[in-house]
Amino acid sequence: MKIRNAAVEGRFYPSTKNRIFEQIREIEASNRYPEIEFLPVKVFGAVLPHAGHLYSGYQTIPFFHLINRLEVSPETFIIVHPNHSGQGLPLAIDDAEVWSNSIGEVPMDREFAKAMDLPFDRKAHAREHSAEVIIPFLQYYFSEHHFSILPICMSDQSYESATLVAERIRQAIRVTGRKVILIASCDFSHFLPPQEGQQKDQQVIDNILLRDTKGVEMAVKKHHVSVCGYGPIMVLMEYTSALYSDYKVQILARGHSGEVIPSREVVDYISMIMYQ
Question: What is the pLDDT of residues 23-73, one digit of tens each?
C-alpha cells in the first residue's frame, strides 16, 4: 500500500492524537468568532487557511462548526491547494492510497482521482503542508463518519488551470456520483503590517464577493497580493458557478498571526463559505 506519511506533524500541529485534539478544543473554547446564524440550502465548499493550527485554527474551526450544525457529511473532501516548494508537476494528484498521521489513516478517493484524468505525482505532495494541516480537523469533526480525501496540488495557479481543474472535478462527480465538499486551501497576505495586509486582501476579496473569477487573478497580479492559494480559490469559484450561477459567499472569520503572537508583520487568515 502506498502511504503518504505526515510531513509537518510536530511543527504545524502537535505530534500526538491527544494533543492535536486538545489544541482544537482549546481554540474552540476561545470563542473568538461567534456562530453566524444562516442556513444554506447547499454548501459547495470553503476557503480555509493552512498555517499552523495555533495560528489559523481560529479561522478554520467556524466552517466545521457550521457544516456540523447543518449535518453535512460528504463522502469526499477535495482539497485544492498551492505548491510552496515548486516540486513536481504543475497540476498533480497524489498517488498514495492513504494519508497517515498520528490520529490515523485517511483513505484517498482513488476512483474519483482516476475519473478526473489529471496526472499523479507524489513529489508535488511529499513535503507540502497546505493540504496536510487541514486533515486533522476533518478527523476531529468527522470522527464518526467515513470519508475520503482528494488533495490536488497546483503550482500552476492560472485562470486556465483553475477552470480545467474545476471541470475535471465536475466530470469525476458525474462519473462517480460522489457527494463532495471542495476546500480551497489559502493564506492571504504574508508578512505585512496588519492594516496594509487587510487593504491588499480586500482587493482580492471584493472580486470573490462579486463572483468574478478572472478578477481574482487580475487583482493578485495588479496589486502584488501575496495570496498563496488564489488558484484554488478560482477552482472553487468556477466549480460552484457551474453548479449554481447565483451562489452566495459569506466570510466566516478573518484574522492574522499577530493576534496569536504580536508582531509588526503578520500573515492573514480568512475563511469563507460558498453556498446556495
Answer: 999 999 999 998 888 889 999 999 999 999 999 999 999 999 999 999 999
pTM (2 decimals)? Answer: 0.97
**CATH number of the domain located at residue range(s) 3-275 in this protein:** 3.40.830.10
Domains in the chain: boundaries? 3-275
Residue pLDDT, tens place only, 141-168? 999 999 999 999 999 999 999 999 999 9
SS (H, E, C) the chain: CCEEECCCECCCECCCHHHHHHHHHHHHHHCCCCCCCCCCCCEEEEEECCCCHHHHHHHHHHHHHHHHHCCCCCCEEEEEEECCCCCCCCEEECCCCEEEECCEEEEECHHHHHHHCCCECHHHHHCCCCCHHHHHHHHHHCCCCCCEEEEEEECCCCHHHHHHHHHHHHHHHHHHCCCEEEEEECCCCCCECHHHHHHHHHHHHHHHHCCCHHHHHHHHHHCCCCCCCHHHHHHHHHHHHHHCCCCEEEEEEEEEHHHCCCCCCECEEEEEEEEC
